[in-house]
Design a protein that fits this description.
about 280 residues, mainly alpha, 11 helices, globular, binds fe (ii) ion
Length: about 280
Protein backbone atom coordinates (compact mmCIF):
# COMPACT_ATOMS: atom_id res chain seq x y z
CA UNK A 1 0.00 0.00 0.00
CA UNK A 2 1.35 3.40 -0.96
CA UNK A 3 1.26 5.85 1.90
CA UNK A 4 1.64 9.48 0.96
CA UNK A 5 1.52 12.72 2.87
CA UNK A 6 -1.49 13.18 5.11
CA UNK A 7 -3.47 16.26 5.98
CA UNK A 8 -6.24 18.23 4.43
CA UNK A 9 -5.57 20.13 1.23
CA UNK A 10 -8.73 22.16 1.49
CA UNK A 11 -7.84 25.83 0.91
CA UNK A 12 -6.85 27.68 4.08
CA UNK A 13 -9.64 29.78 5.53
CA UNK A 14 -12.41 27.61 4.15
CA UNK A 15 -14.87 26.16 6.60
CA UNK A 16 -17.62 23.61 6.13
CA UNK A 17 -21.05 24.36 7.46
CA UNK A 18 -23.91 21.92 8.01
CA UNK A 19 -27.06 23.81 7.07
CA UNK A 20 -30.19 22.17 8.40
CA UNK A 21 -32.71 23.32 5.79
CA UNK A 22 -36.08 21.72 5.07
CA UNK A 23 -37.81 22.07 1.72
CA UNK A 24 -41.51 21.77 0.95
CA UNK A 25 -41.70 20.80 -2.70
CA UNK A 26 -44.90 18.85 -3.28
CA UNK A 27 -46.50 21.42 -5.58
CA UNK A 28 -43.38 21.62 -7.76
CA UNK A 29 -42.76 17.87 -7.87
CA UNK A 30 -46.24 17.15 -9.15
CA UNK A 31 -45.35 18.75 -12.50
CA UNK A 32 -42.46 18.89 -14.99
CA UNK A 33 -40.69 21.52 -12.91
CA UNK A 34 -37.59 21.91 -15.11
CA UNK A 35 -38.49 24.16 -18.05
CA UNK A 36 -41.74 22.21 -18.38
CA UNK A 37 -39.51 19.62 -20.07
CA UNK A 38 -40.33 15.96 -19.27
CA UNK A 39 -36.84 14.62 -20.08
CA UNK A 40 -34.82 17.16 -18.10
CA UNK A 41 -37.24 16.90 -15.17
CA UNK A 42 -37.08 13.10 -15.15
CA UNK A 43 -33.27 13.17 -15.36
CA UNK A 44 -32.92 15.45 -12.32
CA UNK A 45 -35.55 13.42 -10.47
CA UNK A 46 -33.54 10.28 -11.31
CA UNK A 47 -30.46 11.99 -9.87
CA UNK A 48 -32.36 12.60 -6.64
CA UNK A 49 -33.25 8.89 -6.49
CA UNK A 50 -29.56 7.99 -6.22
CA UNK A 51 -28.79 10.28 -3.27
CA UNK A 52 -30.23 8.68 -0.11
CA UNK A 53 -28.44 5.34 -0.52
CA UNK A 54 -25.47 6.79 -2.40
CA UNK A 55 -24.73 9.36 0.27
CA UNK A 56 -25.14 6.77 3.02
CA UNK A 57 -22.46 4.74 1.22
CA UNK A 58 -20.14 7.78 1.02
CA UNK A 59 -20.53 8.41 4.76
CA UNK A 60 -19.83 4.76 5.61
CA UNK A 61 -16.82 4.62 3.28
CA UNK A 62 -15.18 7.67 4.84
CA UNK A 63 -16.23 6.82 8.41
CA UNK A 64 -14.45 3.46 8.12
CA UNK A 65 -11.15 5.37 8.31
CA UNK A 66 -12.09 7.73 11.13
CA UNK A 67 -9.67 6.04 13.52
CA UNK A 68 -6.73 6.25 11.11
CA UNK A 69 -6.88 9.99 10.56
CA UNK A 70 -5.05 11.92 13.25
CA UNK A 71 -4.85 15.26 11.47
CA UNK A 72 -7.23 17.53 13.39
CA UNK A 73 -8.17 19.70 10.39
CA UNK A 74 -9.10 16.71 8.26
CA UNK A 75 -10.91 15.09 11.19
CA UNK A 76 -13.07 18.19 11.62
CA UNK A 77 -13.81 18.23 7.88
CA UNK A 78 -14.83 14.56 7.99
CA UNK A 79 -17.29 15.28 10.75
CA UNK A 80 -18.88 18.11 8.72
CA UNK A 81 -18.90 15.88 5.64
CA UNK A 82 -21.00 13.32 7.57
CA UNK A 83 -23.35 16.09 8.69
CA UNK A 84 -23.77 17.61 5.24
CA UNK A 85 -24.33 14.30 3.44
CA UNK A 86 -26.75 13.23 6.19
CA UNK A 87 -28.86 16.38 5.59
CA UNK A 88 -28.79 15.86 1.81
CA UNK A 89 -29.89 12.27 2.27
CA UNK A 90 -32.79 13.34 4.50
CA UNK A 91 -34.05 16.02 2.10
CA UNK A 92 -33.75 13.83 -1.00
CA UNK A 93 -35.51 10.98 0.78
CA UNK A 94 -38.44 13.34 1.40
CA UNK A 95 -38.18 14.62 -2.20
CA UNK A 96 -38.26 11.06 -3.58
CA UNK A 97 -41.21 10.01 -1.45
CA UNK A 98 -43.23 13.10 -2.35
CA UNK A 99 -42.39 12.68 -6.04
CA UNK A 100 -43.43 9.03 -6.12
CA UNK A 101 -46.61 9.58 -4.06
CA UNK A 102 -47.67 12.45 -6.30
CA UNK A 103 -46.87 10.88 -9.64
CA UNK A 104 -47.49 7.20 -8.97
CA UNK A 105 -43.90 6.08 -9.50
CA UNK A 106 -42.57 2.97 -7.79
CA UNK A 107 -39.96 4.38 -5.39
CA UNK A 108 -38.67 1.00 -4.31
CA UNK A 109 -38.11 -0.04 -7.93
CA UNK A 110 -36.09 3.11 -8.68
CA UNK A 111 -34.04 3.17 -5.48
CA UNK A 112 -33.29 -0.54 -5.90
CA UNK A 113 -30.77 0.29 -8.65
CA UNK A 114 -28.60 2.32 -6.27
CA UNK A 115 -29.03 -0.22 -3.48
CA UNK A 116 -27.81 -2.90 -5.88
CA UNK A 117 -24.72 -0.86 -6.80
CA UNK A 118 -23.93 -0.29 -3.12
CA UNK A 119 -24.47 -3.97 -2.24
CA UNK A 120 -22.24 -5.08 -5.10
CA UNK A 121 -19.50 -2.65 -4.05
CA UNK A 122 -19.69 -3.89 -0.45
CA UNK A 123 -19.49 -7.54 -1.53
CA UNK A 124 -16.76 -7.24 -4.15
CA UNK A 125 -14.54 -4.38 -3.02
CA UNK A 126 -12.26 -3.63 -0.10
CA UNK A 127 -12.76 -0.59 2.16
CA UNK A 128 -10.09 1.19 0.07
CA UNK A 129 -12.16 0.44 -3.02
CA UNK A 130 -15.26 1.89 -1.32
CA UNK A 131 -13.37 5.04 -0.50
CA UNK A 132 -11.95 5.28 -4.02
CA UNK A 133 -15.46 4.89 -5.45
CA UNK A 134 -16.65 7.62 -3.10
CA UNK A 135 -13.88 9.92 -4.37
CA UNK A 136 -14.95 9.21 -7.95
CA UNK A 137 -18.65 9.82 -7.43
CA UNK A 138 -17.87 12.90 -5.34
CA UNK A 139 -15.92 14.15 -8.36
CA UNK A 140 -18.96 13.70 -10.61
CA UNK A 141 -21.16 15.36 -7.98
CA UNK A 142 -18.73 18.28 -7.73
CA UNK A 143 -18.93 18.79 -11.50
CA UNK A 144 -22.74 18.90 -11.31
CA UNK A 145 -22.44 21.33 -8.40
CA UNK A 146 -20.08 23.63 -10.30
CA UNK A 147 -22.37 23.69 -13.32
CA UNK A 148 -25.54 24.23 -11.30
CA UNK A 149 -24.02 27.12 -9.32
CA UNK A 150 -22.98 28.58 -12.68
CA UNK A 151 -26.63 28.61 -13.76
CA UNK A 152 -26.50 25.45 -15.89
CA UNK A 153 -30.00 24.03 -16.45
CA UNK A 154 -31.57 25.41 -13.29
CA UNK A 155 -30.99 29.14 -13.83
CA UNK A 156 -34.63 29.84 -14.51
CA UNK A 157 -36.66 27.27 -12.57
CA UNK A 158 -39.03 27.57 -9.61
CA UNK A 159 -37.15 29.33 -6.76
CA UNK A 160 -37.76 26.56 -4.21
CA UNK A 161 -36.45 23.87 -6.55
CA UNK A 162 -33.44 25.98 -7.43
CA UNK A 163 -32.87 26.62 -3.76
CA UNK A 164 -32.73 22.88 -2.95
CA UNK A 165 -30.36 22.03 -5.79
CA UNK A 166 -28.13 25.05 -5.13
CA UNK A 167 -27.95 24.29 -1.39
CA UNK A 168 -26.91 20.72 -2.16
CA UNK A 169 -24.46 21.93 -4.82
CA UNK A 170 -22.83 24.49 -2.53
CA UNK A 171 -22.19 21.90 0.17
CA UNK A 172 -20.89 19.42 -2.42
CA UNK A 173 -18.35 22.02 -3.52
CA UNK A 174 -17.40 22.83 0.06
CA UNK A 175 -16.61 19.22 0.92
CA UNK A 176 -15.35 18.05 -2.47
CA UNK A 177 -11.83 17.27 -1.23
CA UNK A 178 -12.67 15.47 2.03
CA UNK A 179 -12.96 11.90 0.71
CA UNK A 180 -9.92 12.42 -1.53
CA UNK A 181 -7.76 13.73 1.32
CA UNK A 182 -8.71 10.70 3.42
CA UNK A 183 -7.99 8.44 0.43
CA UNK A 184 -4.58 9.98 -0.11
CA UNK A 185 -3.87 9.54 3.59
CA UNK A 186 -4.78 5.84 3.75
CA UNK A 187 -3.86 4.66 0.24
CA UNK A 188 -3.47 7.07 -2.65
CA UNK A 189 -3.41 4.17 -5.14
CA UNK A 190 -3.96 5.70 -8.57
CA UNK A 191 -5.03 2.52 -10.34
CA UNK A 192 -7.87 1.76 -7.92
CA UNK A 193 -9.02 5.38 -8.05
CA UNK A 194 -9.05 5.36 -11.85
CA UNK A 195 -10.76 1.99 -12.23
CA UNK A 196 -13.47 2.66 -9.68
CA UNK A 197 -14.45 5.92 -11.38
CA UNK A 198 -14.68 4.17 -14.74
CA UNK A 199 -16.83 1.36 -13.33
CA UNK A 200 -19.06 3.64 -11.26
CA UNK A 201 -19.57 6.08 -14.13
CA UNK A 202 -20.96 3.30 -16.31
CA UNK A 203 -23.24 2.01 -13.56
CA UNK A 204 -24.31 5.51 -12.52
CA UNK A 205 -25.26 6.43 -16.10
CA UNK A 206 -27.20 3.21 -16.61
CA UNK A 207 -28.99 3.84 -13.29
CA UNK A 208 -29.89 7.44 -14.22
CA UNK A 209 -31.05 6.64 -17.73
CA UNK A 210 -33.03 3.58 -16.64
CA UNK A 211 -34.91 5.59 -14.01
CA UNK A 212 -35.37 8.54 -16.38
CA UNK A 213 -36.84 6.13 -18.95
CA UNK A 214 -39.05 4.47 -16.32
CA UNK A 215 -40.58 7.79 -15.22
CA UNK A 216 -41.15 8.94 -18.81
CA UNK A 217 -42.72 5.61 -19.69
CA UNK A 218 -45.00 5.81 -16.66
CA UNK A 219 -46.04 9.32 -17.75
CA UNK A 220 -46.57 8.04 -21.32
CA UNK A 221 -44.09 10.59 -22.63
CA UNK A 222 -41.08 8.41 -23.46
CA UNK A 223 -41.81 7.86 -27.15
CA UNK A 224 -42.89 11.39 -27.96
CA UNK A 225 -40.72 13.11 -30.55
CA UNK A 226 -40.32 16.22 -28.33
CA UNK A 227 -39.06 14.09 -25.42
CA UNK A 228 -36.54 12.19 -27.55
CA UNK A 229 -35.31 15.41 -29.12
CA UNK A 230 -34.91 17.07 -25.73
CA UNK A 231 -33.15 13.98 -24.35
CA UNK A 232 -30.68 13.86 -27.21
CA UNK A 233 -29.92 17.57 -26.86
CA UNK A 234 -29.61 17.29 -23.07
CA UNK A 235 -27.13 14.44 -23.33
CA UNK A 236 -25.16 15.26 -26.49
CA UNK A 237 -26.06 18.77 -27.68
CA UNK A 238 -24.45 22.14 -27.08
CA UNK A 239 -24.63 22.86 -23.33
CA UNK A 240 -25.58 19.21 -22.73
CA UNK A 241 -24.07 16.80 -20.22
CA UNK A 242 -21.38 15.27 -22.45
CA UNK A 243 -19.97 18.54 -23.75
CA UNK A 244 -20.26 20.39 -20.44
CA UNK A 245 -18.81 17.65 -18.25
CA UNK A 246 -16.16 16.00 -20.39
CA UNK A 247 -13.21 18.30 -19.64
CA UNK A 248 -13.76 18.41 -15.87
CA UNK A 249 -14.44 14.67 -15.74
CA UNK A 250 -11.15 13.84 -17.45
CA UNK A 251 -9.13 15.90 -14.96
CA UNK A 252 -9.62 13.03 -12.52
CA UNK A 253 -7.36 10.79 -14.63
CA UNK A 254 -4.36 12.99 -13.99
CA UNK A 255 -2.24 11.04 -11.50
CA UNK A 256 -1.67 14.23 -9.48
CA UNK A 257 -5.34 15.25 -9.50
CA UNK A 258 -6.81 17.00 -6.48
CA UNK A 259 -10.38 18.41 -6.34
CA UNK A 260 -9.14 21.91 -5.51
CA UNK A 261 -7.05 21.99 -8.71
CA UNK A 262 -10.25 23.60 -9.93
CA UNK A 263 -10.57 26.46 -7.47
CA UNK A 264 -14.21 27.47 -7.78
CA UNK A 265 -14.61 29.17 -4.41
CA UNK A 266 -16.03 32.22 -6.18
CA UNK A 267 -19.18 30.15 -6.86
CA UNK A 268 -19.53 29.43 -3.16
CA UNK A 269 -18.97 33.08 -2.27
CA UNK A 270 -21.60 34.17 -4.76
CA UNK A 271 -24.12 31.60 -3.50
CA UNK A 272 -23.45 32.54 0.14
CA UNK A 273 -23.86 36.24 -0.67
CA UNK A 274 -27.27 35.41 -2.18
CA UNK A 275 -28.24 33.56 1.02
CA UNK A 276 -27.15 36.43 3.25
CA UNK A 277 -28.94 39.09 1.16
FE1 LIG B 1 -24.58 15.36 -1.00
FE1 LIG C 1 -20.80 14.81 -1.40
Amino acid sequence: MTVIASASRMPEGMTLKVRNIKFELSEQLSRDWLDNDPFKTAFFNALSMTFPDGERFFIDSVRHYEGEVKDTKLKAEMSKFFGQEGMHSREHRAYNKALCDLRGYNQEKMERRTKYMVRLAKQKMSPVGHLAATCGVEHITAIFADKILNGWMLGDVDPQMRSLWEWHSAEELEHKSVAMDVYNHVSGDYKIRKMTLQAFTVHFLINLLANTGYMLRKDRKLWQWSTLKSGFGFLFGKGGVLREFRGDYLMYFNIEFHPWDDDNRHLLDRWQAGQDA
